């Protein structure tokens, strides 16, 4: 798909980077600014929202609204897509997870933001006359629920020992590290490529008992050295933040997975604003984004918060995992 990259998109991406800087600042001082702990509300996912989930979402909505280029957004923290323009003229749809791994906030473990940008089919015009202002018509849902193949841009910002914004506009993946002394993102990772193989797996093995047999066989093979020339087992690394686990996988290689299981057939991660943007980034870096039985970017979401099983990382590692599931 030939992606149109123009100045208008740059305005959207610039506004996203401002949101990331603002969130990074709040995360850094969460413990001394009363920004830890729960917000006291439950989101559409059924999760207890953290205070920073809510504030990060408000920041993204505000910067996208003031960008003047965004028509509709979909967020993990919004029940339905929201029109962010009073006079709707936005050229873009922006999907985002404003704070990923938010359960880690109180322990100051890495968190992040994830975003994706689509062009808008302009069919979606909010019905401002409706009682519930900003009510988004059905077609706005369609406008938002696009397959990842349509993504014009995707990225994540990791709030960790350093703040790193990773971005692709369809021509490779580039990383920018925030220099706090000047408040600017500085190029630090050029044309990132995921190592073809990697001996690290990143799964929540607490769910092992509920996994399908093929997946258990796969995990047992990794742990018994069944997939290395020297017969050594893989190492496990899992911090419970997709952004942190994904970023390590991007740089060191290996595989991250959040499988479906007996309790949650589609797993936990959301297709539209977690798995599709991360898959676009992974593929642009030479890796893969898979449901275990197919390519994530090919899936058109049926609803905004749809979940899918998700495996991503080194091409060879994801293909090895798929070989255990496709047999099933
Ligand atoms: P979020 O904080 O945006 O709701 O996402 C949390 C996700 C993801 O970041 C992480 O990999 C996964 O949940 C961890 O889930 P478990 O605690 O079930 O392992
Ligand atoms: Mn959440
Ligand atoms: Mn998340
Ligand atoms: Mn989140």
Automatic annotation (TrEMBL):
Family statement drawn from the similarity comment of this UniProt entry: Belongs to the FBPase class 1 family.
Annotated gene: FBPASE_1
Domain Fructose-1-6-bisphosphatase class I N-terminal: 4-190
GO BP annotations listed: fructose 1,6-bisphosphate metabolic process; fructose 6-phosphate metabolic process; fructose metabolic process; gluconeogenesis; sucrose biosynthetic process
Gene Ontology MF terms: fructose 1,6-bisphosphate 1-phosphatase activity; metal ion binding
A GO CC term attached to the entry: cytosol
Pfam family, one: FBPase
HAMAP family per record: FBPase_class1
Pathway the protein contributes to: Carbohydrate biosynthesis; Calvin cycle
Necessary cofactors: Mg(2+)
Top EC class, one word: hydrolase
Keyword Ribonucleoprotein among UniProt keywords: no
Residue ranges annotated for the Fructose-1-6-bisphosphatase class 1 C-terminal domain, each copy included: 194-325
EC number(s) stated in the UniProt entry for this protein: 3.1.3.11
Keyword terms, alphabetized: Carbohydrate metabolism, Hydrolase, Magnesium, Metal-binding
Reaction(s) catalysed (UniProt annotation): beta-D-fructose 1,6-bisphosphate + H2O = beta-D-fructose 6-phosphate + phosphate
InterPro entries cross-referenced by the UniProt entry: FBPase_C_dom, FBPase_class-1, FBPase_N, FBPtase, Fructose_bisphosphatase_AS
Subunit text: Homotetramer.
Listed name of the protein: fructose-bisphosphatase
Superkingdom to which the source organism belongs: Eukaryota
Provenance organism: Micromonas commoda (strain RCC299 / NOUM17 / CCMP2709)
